[in-house]
């Protein structure tokens, strides 16, 4: 393949030193023959993101955005995809030839791909979502894309679920908000077609056996592996998808939007598996 023109891309967030995005993008660019493309980590909070983007030149192809800058990313874009607007956040900024930026949320692809490939999800109508932050909002948009029609949001503080509930409304998903400590988790998990936990490591360890009754679970936690929730689901014969599956599947769309080429999925998967010790199968 002919040598490409030098292009740059990066992942912005804080903290950012442990981001695996350079592994995924680096593997993709190498497999695509984009030898002059580079991808780096940039420490940036929301305010720094705005300043950083304003100073970028035409050699920049795109930016991956992680917390805490996903909402700020919408503000620097002149074009916002429908799903990014629905979620209220963007994890992808693409540099246009005219110098403007387009925002998208491939986090939705991450959840869809994780549930289909690792979780074995095919069809259903109801979901149980634990947590109500930015990942939960992307998960709700993904659940609507998968054809589900309703979801229960189980949260510690219902007042903080407003943004996620508004996302559900925008994507046409009926949502009910419940206090986490008042939900009969075993019954709710068994009744749901899919369970998505966006809660941090350790938050659900005591309830893992109850949630293990679910047939299909996405647990954003993947380290240390297996998590108590993953172990409970697997022991009960269910299917488990993880945040690492999400990371992989959201990166495919970013690579394609940055480069205009099809993502080399196997190369990206193999690189991520190698970087994380091969503990997870990461099916495509």
UniProtKB/TrEMBL annotation:
Protein name: Shikimate dehydrogenase
NCBIfam families according to UniProt: PRK00258.1-3, Shik-DH-AROM
Record domain Shikimate dehydrogenase substrate binding N-terminal: where: 11-93
Pathway assigned to this chain's UniProt record: Metabolic intermediate biosynthesis; chorismate biosynthesis; chorismate from D-erythrose 4-phosphate and phosphoenolpyruvate: step 4/7
GO MF annotation: an example: NADP binding
Stored Gene3D superfamilies: Leucine Dehydrogenase, chain A, domain 1, NAD(P)-binding Rossmann-like Domain
Record SUPFAM superfamilies: Aminoacid dehydrogenase-like, N-terminal domain, NAD(P)-binding Rossmann-fold domains
Listed GO biological process terms: aromatic amino acid family biosynthetic process; chorismate biosynthetic process; shikimate metabolic process
Stretches assigned to the SDH C-terminal domain: 243-272
PANTHER family (alphabetical): BIFUNCTIONAL 3-DEHYDROQUINATE DEHYDRATASE_SHIKIMATE DEHYDROGENASE, CHLOROPLASTIC, SHIKIMATE DEHYDROGENASE
Domain of life from the UniProt record: Bacteria
């Amino acid at each position: 393949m002919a040598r490409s023109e030098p292009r740059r891309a990066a992942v912005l967030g804080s903290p950012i030193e442990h981001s695996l995005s350079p592994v995924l993008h680096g593997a993709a660019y190498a497999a695509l023959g984009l030898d002059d493309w580079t991808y780096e980590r940039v420490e940036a909070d929301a305010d720094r993101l705005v300043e950083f983007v304003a100073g970028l030149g035409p050699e920049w192809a795109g930016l991956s955005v992680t917390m805490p800058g996903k909402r700020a990313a919408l503000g620097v874009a002149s074009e916002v995809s429908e799903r990014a607007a629905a979620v209220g956040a963007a994890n992808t900024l693409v540099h246009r030839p005219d110098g403007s930026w387009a925002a998208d949320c491939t986090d939705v692809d991450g959840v869809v791909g994780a549930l289909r490939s690792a979780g074995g999800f095919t069809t259903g109508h109801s979901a149980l979502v634990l947590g109500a932050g930015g990942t939960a909002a992307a998960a709700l948009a993904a659940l609507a894309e998968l054809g589900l029609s309703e979801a229960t949001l189980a949260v510690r503080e219902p007042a903080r679920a407003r943004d996620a509930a508004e996302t559900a409304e925008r994507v046409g998903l009926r949502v009910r908000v419940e206090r986490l400590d008042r939900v009969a988790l075993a019954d709710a998990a068994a009744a749901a077609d899919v369970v998505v936990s966006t809660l941090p490591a350790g938050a659900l360890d005591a309830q893992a056996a109850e949630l293990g009754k679910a047939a299909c679970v996405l647990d954003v936690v993947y380290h240390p592996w297996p998590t108590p929730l993953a172990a409970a689901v697997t022991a009960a014969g269910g299917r488990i998808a993880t945040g690492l599956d999400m990371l992989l599947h959201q990166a495919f769309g970013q690579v394609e939007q940055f480069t205009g080429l099809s993502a080399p999925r196997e190369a990206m998967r193999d690189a991520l598996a190698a970087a994380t010790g091969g503990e997870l199968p990461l099916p495509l």
